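We give this protein:

***
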Amino acid sequence: MKIVKQSFKFLVLAVLMFLPTSIFANDTAQDGGQISGKKQVEEYIVHHLKDSHDFNLFSYTNDSGERKHFGVALPVIVWTSQGLVTFMSSEFHHNDDGHVIVEKEGLKLAKIHSKIYELEKGATSVSFDAGHHATNAAKLLDFSITKSVVGVLLIGLLMLFWFSRLAKQYKKKQIPTGFGRILEPLVLYVRDEIARPNIGEKQYRKFTGYLLTVFFFIWILNLAGLTPLGFNVTGQLAVTACLAIFTLVIYTVSGNKDYWMHILWMPGVPIFVKPILAVIELVGAFIIKPFSLLVRLFANISAGHIVLMSLIAIMFTLKESLGVAGATGLSFVLSFFLLLIELLVAFLQAYIFTMLSALFIGMAVAEHDHDHDHEISSDVEDVRGDFI
């Protein structure tokens, strides 16, 4: 009963954390960040989905009409023609066009569409072609601590703190207390319902740590993306691709002899078909499987954010016809119900990624019954003989 009460309190706290999403957007509108028209709405949504070199919490317009941004500047680390250059992202602030030139170590750097470019020598401003691409600037290698990197570090430290405390509690007592009582059933669920049935009794313990890390990492990041903090880490292809590559490396390195034999020289099929199946299996193992992992997570999280931000944008586009109160109320109600669905999607996407990872790993380490394979081969030969 205590666990149920603690879980209910945690759910209420989570909903209260996510409620300010619409209110936060409304404050932005009232403070001078009005959005009107299809193009501006699209820019508003794209800006939310993109990564950022600063941690901007909110913006407002002061009495003199000057736009102010409240947030935290993050380190910009880029590799230029003269080597590594570092400075704070606050030097790119206080501009609406995003093309302010920053001079560092004799170089001129510009931020264009959230990317940092180095201008050619002698250039004083950025020139664009018809497609709005910079013609006198080169994109740099960017190693900056962006907002997504901050999100990954924060969630990683949070997970380390939570599970370190849970591990210490198990050394002293059999039943954890406090927040550990919420974590324990989730840990047991991943172990007993995902790792054990898909990988097998002999091998599941070896990979449970990775599956637990992936599950909680994706789930908490998905939840953080629904808060006014503006994290959209799992909506970045680079992040989902890295997670998919981790799974790819694990099941590739852990694959046993039977796994590779079934990929490279499939038993029980005619010999002239085996090379064709080998190509198909290799493409599936190294391209299709990781691609399905990264695209599914990226697409579902991004789609949820786009729909949610589109509903929030209703208050901007319909405020003239419905009034500020009516547009805000409609946007809040629709966003709230979609937010409840997004809470489910946040868990579901973490579950699906972890389940598929466990399934791929289980296929790689499974021990095949060679007698059964021989029986299948014999059955194929019998059927072929019947047809002949």
